[in-house]
Design brief:
CATH superfamily of the largest domain: Vaccinia Virus protein VP39
CATH topology of the largest domain: Rossmann fold
Distance between the termini: 87 Å
CATH architecture of the largest domain: 3-Layer(aba) Sandwich
Number of strands: 7
Mean pLDDT: 86
Shape: globular
Helix content: 40-55%
Radius of gyration: 23 Å
């Protein structure tokens, strides 16, 4: 007689997929990097080598930001681009007890993870408030805050978690959908936008959004493709084919590919409009003598920030601003190459009055 099968038995434990070889290449295979608490030594080695572990983000200009903002216990702070939560963690440690940090972000995937990380550090609802909104809409939460913020930080860079994950469409190093949306639940992906443009429109986009010197050739190459470009690697290949033979340096070719992706990303997320709206609302969000720090990563962002700060200073809305750009230290640039293009600007609100 055969033995009866017990359907109530617990399912067999499924083993975790192991690395394929010593150094895995696929983003989803790097389970050690995705679980830094359990594999701290492995993650530390990756960081020491000057790389950013998969699924993580290394906050840029942390000490410089703390120096210009001077956070103190009891202050109300806005992290307008919560990202991985690294800057927020440093600010929270200095404004508590008594203070509160409001963290906002448009990315529905990363904002949940960032809040979970900060909550594990013991921060309560009274100390940490998280909202999923675009920083252009920060005025929506002012009534909840109770007036304004003492300090505001906006890090305009794309997070490493977004850049490294092929599924988000930000990286050309691995094939993935040509998406580039910071909020994948809204708007159209870059592939759809590309198909809606004319060759001339795309060329102008490359010039305006990325100062791309080979814009004409790249636009021509992309629009010569017989099939619509829908993957990150297909776009990267089209850019490579467009570059003159004199461009034989791999680093220079890579820079053109990055600039092309940057130009599309800015357009897909309407980043310049969002930034300008944020800068317009910034004085209304700051308390008297409140300070704001903005971290930019290319001239299109930095020019807009400087222009807005100067106009505010001339009109009396702002009492002071940083006259010179602040950059990551040489050591940080060596340790984290992604910090090389970062520029930090700061401004201080004057006494409350007409904006």
């Amino acid at each position: 007689m055969t033995e009866a099968v017990n359907n109530d038995e617990a399912p067999l434990h499924k083993r975790r997929v192991r690395y394929k070889g010593k150094n895995p290449r696929r983003f989803d295979e790097k389970y050690k990097e995705h679980d830094p608490e359990h594999y701290a030594k492995d993650v530390a080695k990756i960081i020491q080598s000057g790389k950013t572990p998969a699924g993580m983000h290394r906050s840029i200009c942390v000490q410089e930001i703390l120096q210009v903002l001077e956070p103190r216990p009891g202050q109300i702070v806005l992290d307008a681009t919560l990202g991985y939560g690294g800057h927020a963690r440093e600010l929270l440690s200095r404004i508590t007890p008594g203070g509160c940090l409001w963290g906002i972000d448009v990315d529905p995937i990363e904002i949940k993870r960032a809040e979970a990380r900060l909550r594990t550090s013991g921060y309560t609802q009274e100390e940490l408030q998280v909202r999923r909104i675009n920083f252009a809409g920060v005025l929506k939460i002012l009534s909840e805050v109770g007036g304004g913020f003492d300090l505001i930080l906006a890090d305009l860079g794309v997070s490493s978690m977004q850049l490294d994950d092929p599924g988000r469409g930000f990286t050309f190093k691995r094939e993935g959908p040509l998406d580039l949306r910071l909020n994948p639940e809204r708007g159209q992906p870059a592939s759809a936008l590309l198909q809606s443009l004319s060759e001339k429109d795309f060329e102008n986009m490359l010039r305006v959004n990325a100062d791309e010197p080979y814009a004409h050739g790249i636009a021509k190459s992309v629009f010569k493709c017989r099939k619509p470009i829908v993957t990150t690697t297909a776009l990267a290949d089209a850019v490579r084919r467009a570059l003159p033979r004199t461009v034989d340096d791999e680093e220079e070719r890579t820079r053109s590919i990055r600039r092309t992706f940057q130009a599309l990303r800015i357009a897909v997320n309407d980043e310049f409009f969002v930034l300008e709206q944020f800068l317009k609302n910034l004085p209304m969000c700051l308390n008297s003598d409140g300070r704001a720090a903005i971290l930019t990563f290319h001239s299109g962002e930095d020019d807009r920030v400087v222009r807005s700060f100067k106009q505010g200073l001339e009109s009396g809305v702002y009492a002071d601003m940083g006259r010179e750009p602040i950059r990551a230290s040489r050591q940080e640039q060596y340790d984290n190459p992604r910090s090389k293009s970062a520029i930090l600007r700061w401004v201080q609100r004057g006494k409350k009055g007409r904006v």
